[in-house]
Structures are given as structure tokens and as C-alpha cells.
Amino acid sequence: MQPIELKPDAQGKVRDIFDLGGELLIVATDRISAFDVVLPDPIPYKGEVLTRISLFWFDVLADVVPNHLISAEMEDLPEEYAAYAESLAGRSMLVRKAEVFPVECIVRGYLAGSGWKEYSEHGTVCGHPLPTGLVESQKLPEPIFTPSTKAAIGDHDENISYERMVEIIGEAHAAGLRDASLALYSRAAQHAALRGIIIADTKFEFGLIDGEIALIDEVLTPDSSRFWPADTYEAGHGQPSFDKQFVRDWLEAANWNKQAPAPSLPEDIITITAEKYVEAYEMITDEPFVPEGD
After folding, report:
1. 224 and 138 co-located in one domain
2. Is 171 part of a structural domain of the chain?
3. Based on the number of CB atoms within 10 Å of its own CB, is 215 exposed (0-12), middle (13-18) or buried (19 or more)?
4. pTM beyond 0.85
5. Per-residue pLDDT of the chain (294 residues; tens, 9 = 90+)
6. Separation CA 284–CA 200 (nearest Å)
7. What is the enclosing helix (H) or strand (E) of 28?
8. What residues are paired with 234 via a beta bridge?
9. Cα–Cα distance between 58 and 176 in angstroms, integer?
10. CATH number of the domain encompassing residue 42
11. Which residues, including other chains, have CB under 8 Å from residue 225's CB and lie 6 or more apart?
12. Are 130 and 120 in contact (CB under 8 A)?
């Protein structure tokens, strides 16, 4: 991706955001983060994969919850961005501005990651009591909603209770985000299952547009979800995945202290990670990945 010689008005771990006045231009870069730290090495085509998967889900899930998407077509770019169309193609979205809720909405359908660790120690996941005798990667009796705070770059998200979420955003909005998250996960999990993918868990973000709850940012991507291949799934141990868990596993093995700066990734880890992102896109959308931008 060639650099855009315009300074973003805001920058996340992966996305650059340009304020166009009445709308935003969100550009997904090839940056990758792990443990809330941005790594020094980009993953080729990652930004395109994230954007195009999100566009796919925005379309599939539009009847569940409205979203902020206006357009991803280069001809709809403002004039000052037209010169960068080649770099922006496939990785950018024009979206409506939203009053963003300061929480992240996580839905867990399987016992994995920090959820498995907490269950092993306390028999709960984010305070939700679960039946005894469950094993790692086991499907939960039903999906559970586990919100977290939305941390700044370099800080760590913190799991919070639903009651704390109510204190932060109010009871009506908390219930609305919970119900929307569970409905989105249910629909997406059904679709992914038909494509041979298990969505173990995922994270949604929401905002208010014209006073109504809307789905924003990225949706059900390898960055915001755990995707497992269904044909090799077996409860009782960790699963291979199509997401950045592969990078997390390498970093764990490297004994990194999870504080910036992060170590550089070996070339083979970069290559395999890029392949996993592309494979996730192709399985979910049932279309070949052909890069649009440079």
C-alpha cells in the first residue's frame, strides 16, 4: 500500500480515519496488532481482506441491524482523495458519522482464549456461571454476551459486567447492544457454518446515527473474531484458526512481555498469516480474493 500524503484525523491500531465533514473515510491498513500493541511488520493485503469481509457482512446482516456504510466505490471519493484511488481501492469505506458507544460488544459461542482461562480457574466466563465439566474449545450451551471497555492504543481492553455497561451507557442502550450483538452472531454463525467455518467468538462496535443503534467499524473479520475450520474441529484442545491467533501463538512462544515495542515477525509467519486472512475471506464469501489496490 502506497502512503496517502494526507494526515488522518484519527488513527486506530489498524485503521486511519479521515473526517470529511458530513462523513468519514475509514482506511484499513496492513498493520496488525496483538495484545493491544501494534506490531512493526505489516501483513500484505490484510487491510483489503478486513474491508471486503466487512462489506460482505454489512450486506448480509443489513436486515438485522442497520450500519454506517455509505459506499466503498472509488468514484464516490471526494476530489482531494481521488489521486489516491489506487491505494484506497478495496481497503476504504465512506461511512456516516456515529456517536460511538465507549464499549466493545463481545459474543462468545465457544470456550476459548481468556474465557477458557477464567473458566478453568473459576467456572465462569466474564462472571457468567457455566456448567461444570466443560473442556477447552467446547461449544457453550448458548452464546453469551461479555462486554468490555474500549481502550486507547497501547492500553488493554478490560472485561466488564453487564451491570457496569448499564452504568456507562444506560439500561436501554445496553439492552439494545446486547440483543443486537446476539442476533448478529446467531445469523453470522449460521452463514459461516454453511461455509465450513466456526465463529468461536467475535467483537462488535456500535454507535448512534440519527438516534438509532447502528453497526460500525469492522464486522466479523479475522481481526475481530476467532474463525475455526469446522472439518477439523474437536473439543478438548486449542484449534487451528484463520485469524491472528497464529501470530499471538508465535509471540507467546517468543516470550514477549506484551509491552511495546513488539518483536519483528519472521517472514514465514508474515506469509502464513497473510494466507490465513485470504483463506478466511474466500471461505466466508465463497469468492476468490483478487487484490483491488496496490
Report:
1. yes
2. yes
3. buried
4. yes
5. 555 667 899 999 999 999 999 899 999 999 999 988 999 999 999 999 999 999 999 999 999 999 999 999 999 998 889 889 999 999 999 999 999 999 999 999 999 999 999 999 999 998 899 999 999 999 999 999 999 998 665 556 788 999 999 999 999 999 999 999 999 999 999 999 999 999 999 999 999 999 999 999 999 999 999 999 999 999 999 999 988 888 988 999 999 999 999 999 999 999 999 999 999 999 999 999 999 865
6. 14
7. strand 23-28
8. none
9. 18
10. 3.30.200.20
11. 199, 200, 201, 202, 203, 243
12. no
Determine, yes or no, domain membership for 70: yes
- Per-residue 3-state assignment (H helix, E strand, C coil) for 75-127: HHCCHHHHHHHHHHCCCEEEEECCEECCEEEEEEEECCHHHHHHHHHHCEECC
Same domain membership, residue 137 and residue 18:
no
The amino acid present at 187, given as its one-letter code, is R
Shared domain for 187 and 209, answered yes or no, is yes
Instruction: Give the structural domain span for 189.
Output: 99-242
Domains contained in the chain, number = 2
Residue 266 lies in a domain: no
